[in-house]
Amino acid sequence: MPSSAFTFKKSIATVSLSGTLPEKLEAAAAIGFDGVEIFENDLLTFDGSPADVRRIAEGLGLEITIFQPFRDFEAMPDPIRARNLDRAERKFDVMQELGTDLVLVCSNVQPAAIDDPARAAADLAEMAERAQRRGLRVGYEALAWGRHVNRWRQAWDIVHRADHPALGLIVDSFHTLALNDDPSGIADLPGDRIFFVQLADAPALSMDVLSWSRHFRNFPGQGQLPVRRFLDAVLASGYRGPLSLEIFNDEFRAAPARLTALDGLRSLIHVEAEAGFGPGLPAPPVCHGVEFLEFAVDAAARDKLSALLGSLGFWHAGRHRSKDVDLYRQGGVNLVLNSEEDSAASEHFQMHGPSVCAMAFTVDDAARTIARAEALRCVSWRERVGDGERRIPALRAPDGTLIYLVDGKEAHRSIWEDDFHLFAEEPAGQESSPPPSHGSPLLGIDHIAQALPFGRMDSFVLFYRAVFGFVPESLWELPDPYGLIRSRALVSPDAEPGRGVRLPLNISESRRTATGRFVSATSGAGVHHIAFATADADALVTDRLAAGAPFLPIPANYYDDLAVKHPLDDETLAMLKDRELLYDRDEQGEFLHAYTDSFDDRFFFEVVERRGGYRQFGAVNAAVRMAVQAQLREGARPELYLD
């Protein structure tokens, strides 16, 4: 679609946010919305008049874009019809006090409703005539569970029949897409007869549409509905009114209102730009891979972690020129251990203990990426730098983790030469093990898994999707011994072994699962799993087991089951069992991987080999990994479950 400088007003329904009505209005204004939909229940529970709401909104610079919903109006038997028109007059009084000229009438769900489009059109025409006398308008919307009207074409037919200038159509992406209704015909409608547009996304769920709507809607870009296709059709009609968010979501209504409002505005900016409108967004970055991970440590944790890294084949490759920071390397992987006092890493350590405090992505254009992120209301970060030290631009992820952006146009390896004293070879007397003597070196970081507080996955999905253009994959449910973990990965386009970025995101309602324990024990979200890519897992693990690397002992029963699931020969099965390697395959290829135990019960490492075009993460083996880690954590002796 050709770009347009036209910028839509952006609105959010008060039902989408948590808190009292004044708190919702304050959050919407603080984040930058132009207007709000006043949801009837929020007004009913407000200790004040509609005029008071109007004054609060005006003081915050908010327009009240619509009052909603007016339910069960059209095509009712005569005695009820008269009462409904009286109800409408009373709502018109409320609208005038609120200072809005538009009311949303949703299609009737009552069993008594008459299946007669002509009667529905006549009733709505009468309501519109009364509204027009008072300078007001009526918008008619098809509910996905409406008694007789549940498609936008049916609603439009009724509006068209009524033929009244104060009556128009309201379209909602959820009500259209939840029924797999085709939105393309909306493009052929006259744009001035569409009075209002509501946007909502949702995960793909198999359940009745009413329950789906009431509990699981989310913002555009967070779900799996084709919201962009819906919006393209709407905008092709010539509609230029507000774009508004109407979200019913149990988790959103329990979250801080400003966080939810920020996600909402970000989603509208993103979807508007994708449709070719607004000021536009710089193109998403091309992410070539993970340049480094930075760990927040103190001196004791640094020594302990460096020993673990040494057993995995990393060597001490450099020391920062002016800070208490060390570089460890193997193949294409750079790990930074930061024990500098009075730094962002130190603050992170005080809150979370030994932890990943920063990730660095190599991108094609760091400045463009920062500009895109800031346009999407993300927070950039400037770390204190010393003399001659390279300043690397950075963003804050939703959990506060820093994401550094290493510019691929520059000689990005020079960040190490600029900032570090690099060692030509391992210093004499260093206790860590040397690089693998005959194992396969690491290609890069394959994926980085993050544990999130329950209810926050949608926020992270939107962040990575909008800022970096990552593609969300299907949701997995992983059985931990103490509950269920839900996992969804975000993957950069064209990711391949050792290149690109893969970010599995994990949540759990249970505090006892591996994910739940990480979040509760370390004061919030963070990286809890780092997977290194190798071209030969057999050679690498063989070499590192000899060096004492703490790979997890895998139960013999796993390999007995593996022989049944996959057509593996005896030699391959014996190799996997001997190396403690786990195995998976899909239609594209095979996957070999091995895990370490957790470091201080916080994060752990994995080595992975992707063969062919395997695109997944070995999720089928996650239950084995979590069970073994739980047994080791609880002090079970390995010999109880090994040969």
Automatic annotation (TrEMBL):
Pathway: Aromatic compound metabolism; 3,4-dihydroxybenzoate biosynthesis. One of its GO terms (molecular function) is metal ion binding. InterPro entries: 4OHPhenylPyrv_dOase_N (IPR041736), DSD (IPR043700), Glyas_Bleomycin-R_OHBP_Dase (IPR029068), Glyas_Fos-R_dOase_dom (IPR004360), IolE/XylAMocC-like (IPR050312), VOC_core (IPR037523), Xyl_isomerase-like_sf (IPR036237), Xyl_isomerase-like_TIM-brl (IPR013022). GO terms for biological process: 3,4-dihydroxybenzoate biosynthetic process. The keyword Membrane does not apply. Its EC number is 4.2.1.118. It catalyses: 3-dehydroshikimate = 3,4-dihydroxybenzoate + H2O. This is 3-dehydroshikimate dehydratase. Keywords: Lyase, Metal-binding.
